[in-house]
Amino acid sequence: MQPICFFIFFLIPFLSSSQLINYVDSSGMKQGTWQKKYNNGNVRYEGFFKDNKEIGLFRYFYEDGSLKLEKKFFHNSTAAAAHFYYKNGNIKSSGLYVKGLKDSTWNYYDYDSVLVMTEQYVNGKLNGVTKTFYNEGSIYEIKNWSDNTLNGIWKQFYLNGNLKMKAQYNNNNRDGEEFYYYPNGNILSSGFYNNNLKIGVWQYYFEDGSIDTTINFNE
Q: At a CB cut-off of 8 Å and minimum separation 6, what does 121 contact?
């Protein structure tokens, strides 16, 4: 009888500690279920830790209790798929974190969950193409990035899909030949930029294609 009593006595502290919330072990590592609350008593976030690493699904909430963010951890907790939400429950943005930094393609949505923008990241920096969309789904703007710096072609489009503007960035500065177009496809203006400044001769046209004005920005 005595060994059984001893076993139960030994087991009780173990069960109690395993059921604790916000438990930190003797090595200072978070273990088990963690939960934080707002002053009004509603949950701020909840999730599960093992040896200080987030495991599986973490959920974050607005102060009124509605879901704000879900992060699902994988690859030994070094990466997480994230989904942000508006208070009405619709998706706000989604993407991937790697080592706590934005990575790969991120999508952004308006309040009605219509896609309005996509971005590409590497190690938390914009790298690749950013696309912005009209509410009805057609492309509005395309920009190119390298390490958070605008580089390469920049385009804008009319709602009907026709090209509105074509330019180029070099290290965040407008550089090279730039065109603006009327909705019918005819050129509205053309000329060159150098280090964000218009240079040389710029031509401005009427919608029928005839020349309106010529300006020499070097004079």
A: 95, 101, 102, 103, 104, 105, 106, 127, 128
Q: How confident is the model at residue 21 (pLDDT cuts 50, 70, 90)?
A: very high
Tell me the per-residue pLDDT of 47-104, one tens digit each, with 9 for 90 and over. 999 999 999 999 999 999 999 999 999 999 999 999 999 999 999 999 999 999 999 9
Q: Which CATH number fits domain 56-216: 3.30.70.260, 3.90.930.1, 3.40.50.20, 3.40.630.30?
A: 3.90.930.1
Q: Which residue has the tokens 């690493």?
A: 53
Q: Which residues contact 99 (CB under 8 A, 6 or more apart)?
A: 78, 79
Q: What is the helix (H) or strand (E) element at residue 6, kind and residue range?
A: helix 2-18
CA angle 100, 154, 144 (to 5 degrees): 25
Per DSSP bridges, beta strands 128-133 and 115-122 are antiparallel
The Cα 180–Cα 87 span in angstroms is: 40
In terms of Cα–Cα distance, which of 66, 73, 110, 114 is closest to 88? 66
| 49 Cβ neighbours under 8 A, 6+ residues apart | 29, 30, 31, 32, 34, 55
